[in-house]
TrEMBL record:
Species of the source: Burhinus bistriatus
InterPro entries: STI1_HS-bd, UBA, UBA-like_sf, UBA1_UBAC1, UBA2_UBAC1, UBAC1, Ubiquitin-like_domsf, UBL_UBAC1
Keywords from the UniProt entry: Cytoplasm, Repeat, Ubl conjugation pathway
This protein's GO CC annotations: cytoplasm; ubiquitin ligase complex
CDD domains assigned to the protein according to its UniProt record, in alphabetical order: UBA1_KPC2, UBA2_KPC2, Ubl_KPC2
Pfam families, per the entry: UBA_7, UBL_UBAC1
Subcellular location field: Cytoplasm
Metabolic or biological pathway, per its Swiss-Prot or TrEMBL entry: Protein modification; protein ubiquitination
Protein name: Ubiquitin-associated domain-containing protein 1
Region (Disordered): 90-109, 225-264
Basic and acidic residues bias spans: 98-109
Origin superkingdom: Eukaryota
Protein's UniProt keywords contain Cytoplasm: yes
GO biological process annotation, one example: protein ubiquitination
C-alpha cells in the first residue's frame, strides 16, 4: 500500500515523523508511537489501551481496529498521542465510615449545647447590632470615596495648563498596556495543528496563553455548539467604533470657542477615553460558568462587577436579593460627611489629587478592585491610598 508520512505530537511536547503503509491499523500505529516516545512501555499490555490517537484537524478519536486508510488519514496529517484519564477509584466502605465518624467528631455544638456550657459565666451587656453597624466594610466605603475623589481630581487637574498634554501621555501609556494581545507563537502552534484561528485565540485567552492547556480545552470542547461564541468583553469592532466616534466628537468641536473652552472639552474627551479603557472586564471563565446555570449574560456581568469578579459571591448575589445594585456602585460618599472632609484636608491627599497618575489609579481601582495592591505598592499613589485607609480606620473606631 501507499506509505504515509504522519506528524505525531504528545502532550509533553515531543514531535516526530512516522512513515506507515495506509493498510496499517491504528493500534499498530499506536504501538509504534509508544515505542518511539516511551521506551519499554509495551511490556505492559495495558499501555496501548490507556492511550489514544486523535486526528488534530478533525479532532476525531481514531478507532484501534480500523486502518489508516479507513480513518481517511492523509499524507502529512498531524496526530496527537494522548494518555486517557483514569476514572477516580471508588472509596472503600471503611474509608467512608471513618470519614463520617471524623465529621461527627468535628461537628460544631448546637445552640442548646453552647447555652448549657456557658450557663455559669457572667453575662455582659453588649449591643452587637451597634457594634456590627459601626464596623463598616472598607471595600464598599472605599468605592464611594473613590467616586467622589475622582470628581474632585478632575476639577483640580482641569485647572492645570499642562493637563491636556499630561493626559495625552497617560492615554498613550494605556494604549501600550492592552490585555487583549495574543501570543503569536502559541497561536501559530495551534493553527499548525489544524485548529481554526478564532477558536485557538479563544482557547489561549481562557487558559492564560498556555498551549498545552489550550489544546486540551479545544479537544474537550470540540463538539460544544457554543465553542465559537466570542468571549464576553472581547468585541474589538465595537470598541474601535466607539473610540472612532469619540475622536470624531473631539475633532468636530466648534472652532470659534475660546482656547480655554477647547482645552476643557478636549480634557473631557480624554477622561472619557481613559474611563472607557478602564471599563470592568469580567472573568470569561466565571461568565461561562454562571451562564451555564441559566442566568442572562448582562446580569452575570453585573453580578461579577458588584462582587469583584468572585464567581461564588456573584452566584450568591444572583440567587439572593441582588444588593447592592450595579447603580449603587456609581454613588459617591456624602461630601459633607466628617470622613470625606478629613480625607480632603489631608496634605498628602491634596498633593496626590493634582497628579494625573492618581486619577488613573482611582479609575482603575473603581472598575478593577483586584488591582488595588498594585497601586498601594506604587511610590506615587501608595502614600495617598495609605492616608485614605488610615483616616477611614481612625474615624471608624470613634
Amino acid at each position: 500500500g501507499k506509505v504515509l508520512r504522519l506528524h505525531v505530537c504528545t502532550m509533553e511536547g515531543a514531535e516526530w515523523l512516522e512513515e506507515v503503509p495506509e493498510d496499517t491499523t491504528v493500534e499498530k500505529l499506536k504501538e509504534r508511537c509508544l515505542k518511539h516516545c516511551v521506551p519499554g512501555s509495551l511490556e505492559d499490555p495495558k499501555t496501548v489501551t490507556h492511550h489514544k490517537l486523535i486526528h488534530a484537524t478533525s479532532e476525531k478519536v481514531l478507532t484501534d481496529t480500523k486502518t489508516v486508510l479507513e480513518e481517511n488519514i492523509q499524507d502529512r496529517d498531524v496526530l496527537l498521542l494522548i494518555k486517557k484519564r483514569a476514572p477516580p477509584p471508588l472509596p472503600k466502605m471503611a474509608d467512608v465510615s471513618a470519614e463520617e465518624k471524623r465529621k461527627q467528631e468535628q461537628k460544631a455544638p448546637d445552640k442548646d449545647a453552647i447555652l448549657k456550657a456557658t450557663a455559669n459565666l457572667p453575662s455582659r451587656n453588649v449591643d452587637r447590632t451597634v457594634a456590627h453597624h459601626n464596623m463598616r466594610d472598607f471595600q464598599t466605603e472605599l468605592r464611594k470615596i473613590l467616586v467622589s475623589l475622582i470628581e474632585v481630581a478632575q476639577k483640580l487637574l482641569a485647572l492645570n495648563p499642562d493637563a491636556v498634554e499630561l493626559f495625552k501621555k497617560a492615554n498613550a501609556m494605556l494604549d501600550e498596556d492592552e490585555e487583549d494581545r495574543v501570543d503569536e507563537i502559541a497561536l501559530r502552534q495551534l493553527t499548525e495543528m489544524g485548529f481554526p484561528e478564532s477558536r485557538a485565540v479563544k482557547a489561549l485567552r481562557l487558559n492564560h496563553m498556555s498551549v498545552t492547556q489550550a489544546m486540551e480545552w479545544l479537544i474537550e470542547h470540540a463538539d460544544d455548539p457554543t465553542v465559537d461564541a466570542p468571549l464576553p468583553g472581547h468585541t474589538p469592532s465595537e470598541a474601535t467604533a466607539e473610540a472612532g466616534a469619540s475622536s470624531a466628537e473631539a475633532t468636530a468641536g466648534p472652532s470659534s470657542e475660546a482656547g480655554g473652552e477647547e482645552a476643557k472639552d478636549e480634557l473631557t474627551e480624554i477622561f472619557k477615553k481613559i474611563r472607557r479603557k478602564r471599563e470592568f472586564r469580567p472573568d470569561p471563565r466565571a461568565v461561562i460558568a454562571l451562564m451555564e446555570m441559566g442566568f442572562d449574560e448582562k446580569e452575570v456581568v453585573d453580578a461579577l462587577r458588584v462582587n469583584n469578579n468572585q464567581q461564588n459571591a456573584a452566584c450568591e448575589w444572583l440567587l439572593g436579593d441582588r444588593k447592592p445594585s450595579p447603580e449603587d456602585l456609581d454613588k459617591g460618599i456624602d461630601t459633607n460627611s466628617p470622613l470625606f472632609q478629613a480625607i480632603l484636608e489631608n496634605p498628602v491627599v491634596q498633593l496626590g489629587l493634582t497628579n494625573p497618575k492618581t486619577l488613573l489609579a482611582f479609575e482603575d481601582m473603581l472598575e478593577n478592585p483586584l488591582n488595588s495592591t498594585q497601586w498601594m505598592n506604587d511610590p506615587e499613589t501608595g502614600p495617598v491610598m495609605l492616608q485614605i485607609s488610615r483616616i477611614f480606620q481612625t474615624l471608624n473606631r470613634t
